[in-house]
């Protein structure tokens, strides 16, 4: 195969993986930005999104509907969880928050196992998305191009939310100084709840988008949350731009690492993280605290 | 306008406030002075609802505010200019102002605001972190004003400012009192205090221990300084 074509295909593969990773890492970083804590349940929410997506599609035959219902279900679950359990924990030690979200991850994983059983679930892509296109005379799956578009659209939508809406303004203000944001008349607890629900919805959307490629299986959440942690560390905790750049770096390191140095593939992501953190301990776009 | 009655509370293991009672009437500047660590900042935080577990009572024109969360205290009509200014460093000046505006300000629309604090107008697109100390202070005041407060709490606004900027600040505070706002000013700077205050209260060990009109205070300043203010 022509090396240029080969490289181009790998580039597109890397971008599509970056796009999927972006959905989950974005939610983690939004939550960290405003609550200063890591949500351990984020991988399980992503997995839930994949299962709800597959089932929606099986029952209704509509892939588009699965991309609506999965995030909606996860956002509602996230909202209920934030309002009932997390909202009491912000004033406490961070370890309480970590334990509770870790507990949710375990509970959710078991609930999924009970509800869907241990076997992987896969849904078919609709015909329009299942085809191939030719890129430099080489065949390439249409769906991966769709993923790239979806990732770019999510990045744009989030940027607009952060910079063009009042909720976005309050998210940025609260991440810089929550007490002062409240002292100017804003209900920061409501902002936190909205952010948590939004982040869960994004993760589930990522899961529903990933399901046709990877199938939905128990453990899907664990593998992806580790990549998401790495992205957030590389980009800088709480930084939107950093998360986008981190997703690209990790997507590229994994795709090209896999292809050109398969025996070192697993190490590529971690080597990247270590290199970045040695040079900039706060991450590429983070502030050192 | 604002009344504190027997406010008590503090931090884990330290009961900083031991029954703070004071009034801040509308149209006046009420100053609170006192040594480091007597609880001035803690008093303002308690009023704002930022200090959990406070005893006693805070009322605004007779309406009880005690126990409300900070955003509802602010909405009731209390503006807060905190110690250290606390502007949002990574928001622009314009965005800093918008955080306080759930709806456009009625009392302080842009023309009036920038007539009062002209330096901010040219800085609207700059980040909070890029402002000088004086500009940050004016921004902190502007940000509180656009919430349309009836009471303005200020915590050591003159700290770190050049004498000329302190004079500007004094003029701004007098203007606000002239507009009918109840200004409660915590300060260490006696010059600013004497220049703007109608009444001066002295705090020691978590209580108000002395109270005088500005004129009376000037007459007894030596004695007061010796008794409550020098270390
Ligand atoms: N977050 C906190 N946790 C525990 N103790 C605190 C905290 N903040 C202040 N204190 C203590 O409470 C006491 C009163 O503090 P406060 O800041 O109210 O004093 P202040 O009168 O404003 O002093 P200053 O003039 O230095 O600003 C001090 O002894 C201080 O050490
Ligand atoms: Mg203080």
UniProtKB/TrEMBL annotation, chain B:
SMART domains: AAA. InterPro entries: AAA+_ATPase, ABC_transporter-like_ATP-bd, ABC_transporter-like_CS, BCAA_Transport_ATP-bd_LivF, P-loop_NTPase. GO terms for molecular function: ATP binding; ATP hydrolysis activity; branched-chain amino acid transmembrane transporter activity. Keywords: Amino-acid transport, ATP-binding, Nucleotide-binding, Transport. GO terms for biological process: L-amino acid transport. Pfam families: ABC_tran (PF00005). The lineage of its organism: Bacteria, Pseudomonadati, Pseudomonadota, Alphaproteobacteria, Acetobacterales. Belongs to the ABC transporter superfamily. This is ABC transporter ATP-binding protein. CDD domains: ABC_TM1139_LivF_branched. Residues 2-230 form the ABC transporter domain.
